[in-house]
Design a protein that fits this description.
This protein is an alpha+beta fold and 140 residues long. Helix content is 14%, strand content 25%. The two termini are 17 Å apart. 35% of the residues are buried. The protein binds FE2/S2 (inorganic) cluster. FE2/S2 (inorganic) cluster binds next to loops.
Length: 140
């Protein structure tokens, strides 16, 4: 079964999670008590669940994530213009991966970590190819 390694900003491993192949990344993180905000509950709307995938970057992405990122980039949010940034609610864990969480819970900013999320990806995923450039150096 794939292992998801959660690292902090210094790339120090905080936890390792063994998950069933095909598990939604956000669900795996929440079920293993990872501090990750997920305001909309995993429907590709809020972008609070974004993660950077340092190793094991998927070669596909959902159209919903793609369209949400396009809107964010057009509005000047350049942090979404990176091949290793994904919405955890739009990723299926197929192989080992190393991830860092972008937004952790802070009671001053958030009422709660977020709504419950379903097991599967919402909306029903339409998969697009996702290319990881060699310069990122994260292809295993
Ligand atoms: S976009 Fe809202 S939880 Fe993923």
């Amino acid at each position: 079964m794939p292992i998801v390694s959660v690292v902090d900003f210094m790339m120090k491993v905080q936890k390792e999670i063994t998950v069933e192949k095909g598990t939604k990344l956000l669900k795996a993180l929440i079920d293993h008590d990872t501090d990750i905000v997920h305001t909309c509950g995993g429907i590709a709307k809020c972008t609070t669940c974004r993660v950077t995938i340092h190793k094991g970057v998927p070669t596909k992405k959902t159209q919903a994530q793609h369209e949400r990122f396009e809107r964010a980039i057009k509005s000047g949010q350049s942090q979404f213009d990176h091949p290793a940034v994904f919405l955890a609610c739009q990723v299926l864990v197929e192989d080992d991966m190393t991830v860092s969480v972008s937004e952790t819970f802070n009671s001053i900013i958030h009422d709660s970590p977020g709504k419950d999320t379903e097991d599967g990806i919402t909306p029903d995923p339409v998969w697009l190819d996702h290319e990881v450039p060699d310069w990122w150096g994260i292809k295993d």
